[in-house]
Structures are given as C-alpha cells and as structure tokens.
Amino acid sequence: MRVGIGYDVHKLVEGRKLILGGVHIEYDKGLLGHSDADVLIHAIMDSMLGALALGDIGKHFPDNDVKYKGISSMKLLRKVNELIHDRGYRVNNIDSIIVAQEPKIAPYIEEMRSNISSILNIPVDDISIKATTTERLGFEGRKEGISAHSICTLCKK
Ligand SMILES: Nc1ccn([C@@H]2O[C@H](COP(=O)(O)O)[C@@H](O)[C@H]2O)c(=O)n1
Ligand SMILES: C[C@@]1(CO)OP(=O)(O)OP(=O)(O)OC[C@H]1O
C-alpha cells in the first residue's frame, strides 16, 4: 500500500468557467490556470503521483506547453491513472476537500464522485469529496481563490 497527498490553489477571476471535479458550476467567477484549472482534480492527481514518488502535475504537464492550454483536467486525470497502472498499482481510495467560501459545493459532489469514478474505474464509495468554508478567513474566505487537498492510497493490482 502506498499513500500520497496533494494540495493546489487557483485564483478566482471574472470571465472564466468554474470547473470542479469535472462539473461546470454556475458562479460569477471561475478559476484561472493554463488548463481548465480544476483545482480538485489537480490535488487528486498530485496525491496519486505522490504515492509513487512520481513528482507533480507541473512535471508531467508543464504549464508552458501549448498542448495543455485549456485542457480538461479529467483528461490529465486519465493520463495519471495510466501512469499508476503502468507501474502495477491502482487507486484504492481517495479522500479530498475543497476549501471555498462560495459557491455551495454540496449539490455537485455526487456528480464529481461519479465523474472521477468513471475515469479511474473504481467504485464511487472509494472516492470521498468534502467541502468547507474558512469562516471568511484567509484568501478562500475573501473569495480570492479556491484550494483543494487530497490524500489517496494505492494498492498493487
Ligand atoms: N463552499 C462550500 C462550503 C461548505 N459547504 C458545506 O457546508 C457545510 C458547512 O460549512 P462550514 O465551512 O461552515 O463548516 C460543509 O460541511 C459542507 O457540507 C459547501 O457545500 N460548499
Ligand atoms: C495543470 C497544468 C497544465 O499545464 O496547468 P494549470 O491549470 O496552470 O494548473 P497548475 O495547478 O498550476 O499545474 C500545472 C500544470 O500541470
């Protein structure tokens, strides 16, 4: 069994779509990034890579490579899953948390779990996604950005 952690932050700006866990969430701002800036999926990918000491997403998908401009992070998740499988491992379980003052994430969590489950080909019960505010403290609390944390375990296939 291997364990990895992941953390990511993206800035909230006007004129971008808000994509979290592969779900488009109606909001007046979206996250800024080279890709679709899906901060939850980025944290999850880093936890998967970390579990096998494979570096981070910036190493595998450089943010100066035009190939990744505007790319769906779900496509990157599929690639990270292939890397894990190529090394003889599969995801055992994921626990994650989205830190956002707004918008309300709870109504979208089941769709996010389902999206991730179908990419990783593991049961939704092995994927946990939670959300919290910071009671208006810090950059998330000021609605300047959204962060996400993830921990995952991998087991041998
Ligand atoms: N962006 C968010 C933040 C929180 N939630 C849900 O609300 C609950 C209460 O949040 P607190 O930060 O006040 O503890 C939390 O447990 C989540 O279920 C949310 O949906 N979206
Ligand atoms: C996802 C990548 C893809 O180029 O770009 P960004 O959307 O900017 O996201 P970041 O969390 O900065 O990670 C770097 C890159 O891997």
Question: Can you give the helix content as a percent range?
Answer: 25-40%
Q: Tell me the number of structural domains.
A: 1
How many helix segments?
5
At the first level of CATH, the class is Alpha Beta
List ligands, each type once. ligand L45E5XJ5, 2C-methyl-D-erythritol 2,4-cyclodiphosphate
Strand residues, percent: 25-35%
Beta-strand segment tally: 7
- Describe the largest sheet: 5 strands, mixed
SSE arrangement, N to C? EEEEHHHEHEHE
Give the strand order, joined by hyphens, for the main sheet: 4-1-7-5-6
Q: What's the CATH architecture? A: 2-Layer Sandwich
Overall mean pLDDT stands at 98
Low-confidence regions: none
CATH topology: 60s Ribosomal Protein L30, Chain: A
The 3D shape can be described as globular
Structural class: alpha+beta
Superfamily (CATH H level) name: 2-C-methyl-D-erythritol 2,4-cyclodiphosphate synthase
Radius of gyration: 15 Å
